[in-house]
Amino acid sequence: MRVVVEADGGSRGNPGPAGYGSVVRDTDGQVLLERQGSLGTTTNNVAEYTGLLEGLKAAHELGASEVDVRMDSKLVVEQMSGRWQIKNAGLRPLAAEAAQWVARFDRVSFEWIPRERNKAADALANRAMDEAAGKPVRDRVEPEVVTPASPRSWAPPSMENATRLILVRHGETAYTQQGRYSGRGDIPLSEQGEAQAMAAGGRVAGLARDVTAVVSSPLGRCVRTAEHIAAEVGGVPVTIVDDLIEVDFGLWEGLTFAEVQEGWPGEMTAWLGSTSVAPPGGESFQAAAKRVRGAMASILSSYGGGVVVVVSHVSPIKLILRDALAASDAFLHRLFLDAAGVSTMDVWPDGNIAVRSVNETAHLR
Q1: pTM above the 0.85 mark?
Q2: 322 among annotated binding-site residues
Q3: A Gene Ontology CC term for this entry (predicted)?
Q4: Any idea what the Cα angle at residue 233 is, between residues 227 and 236, rounded to 5°?
Q5: Cross-strand bridge partners of residue 310
Q6: Is residue 117 part of a domain?
Q7: pLDDT above 70: residue 316
């Protein structure tokens, strides 16, 4: 289900008595849910972020999968879109929490709109501000004017507060060698895969001296790869994250591309053409993306600011990189990931991302 979230917030005094308002509509413009609340004494920007958060929570409660956020706060829209940095330390936790809620949906877009198009949320926010002030106040203080913190540049970003994610595909299995779809089947590493996993561990150790955590899909080929890596980086325990598991290929499990093309030509064409289509009896990339985003949000929440090794499969890693690079769905069928290949990216609390490398394989030669 697709919905529109209109959100606003304000403060009488900046800081002063503050409140927020959120409206969730269907695509025809009908109101599905409204929320407002007083926030005591705080700033315009905190109130605006709170309006966004409450709107996203309401959309999630309604079971929405796609959300179009519309706000008259240029600051919030630009920061959540990743175009402006967040220098105000007080806003970073709110932006990080909003990013975690965004990850629960299949798609979220942000659009700035003029205030006259945001009247419903504005009215709710003003009502909440009146309540916070304890008396009716008609005049609303204009939101704080904020300009971009700094222009974009090619200079390396500061690593302050960043979380480094080292993404590793598991080592080779018999299915890998034969080019067979390997989803939920628990196929063990081959002898070559064991050697590749150890080599990946050496590469990871070279990338990071202090690894905070090693997390893995629950399937044996990933757990074994993770164990080799953990041994190379000082014996960090391996933590299982169920939602890092591979896509379920259903009836195609264990078959080659040619075999599937021969047996299910129409289904294969539909699957290649849309991430919303699942293999017969399996899972779509769209559904997998939703759970993988949730897993990554949980990982960032648990180990933020550290170095995390994520051992998973082709599809989850492709989905992570697609989102990080803001790429189209075509990316999923154009990127090749080798067994035990290593990719690296950094994520900041404000949602900014820098992809450092994709599918490194020099350690396997």
Answers
A1: no
A2: no
A3: cytoplasm
A4: 60
A5: 167, 215
A6: yes
A7: yes
Same domain, 200 and 309: yes
Which residues belong to the active site? 170, 246
Q: End of a domain among 133, 153, 179? A: 133
Q: End-to-end distance of the chain based on CA atoms, in angstroms? A: 47
Would residue 156 count as lying in a domain?
Answer: no
Domain identity same for 44 and 123: yes
Specify whether 194 is located in the same domain as 86: no
Distance (Å, whole) CA 245 – CA 264: 24
The helix or strand, by DSSP H or E, that contains position 66, with its residue range, turns out to be strand 66-71
129 three-class SS: helix
Q: Are residues 241 and 112 in the same domain?
A: no
Sign of CA dihedral 289, 291, 294, 299: negative
Closest CA to 163 of 347, 335, 25: 347
Cα–Cα distance, 71 to 249 (Å, whole number):
40
Give the Cα separation of 268 and 252 in Å (integer): 10
Residues 6+ apart with CB under 8 A from 266: none
How many domains in the chain? 2
186 shares its domain with 335: yes
Q: Which helix (H) or strand (E) holds 74?
A: helix 74-80
21-77 per-position pLDDT tens digit: 999 999 889 999 999 999 888 899 999 999 999 999 999 988 899 999 999 999 999
- Residue 208 belongs to domain spanning: 163-364
Q: Domain with 98 in it: what CATH number?
A: 3.30.420.10
The CATH number of the domain holding residue 267 is 3.40.50.1240
H helix runs in 250-341, sequence order: 257-263, 265-273, 285-303, 314-324, 331-334
User: pLDDT averaged over the chain?
Assistant: 89
* Residue 260 tokens, joined: 């599937």
Burial class from Cβ neighbours inside 10 Å (0-12, 13-18, 19+) for residue 63 reads exposed
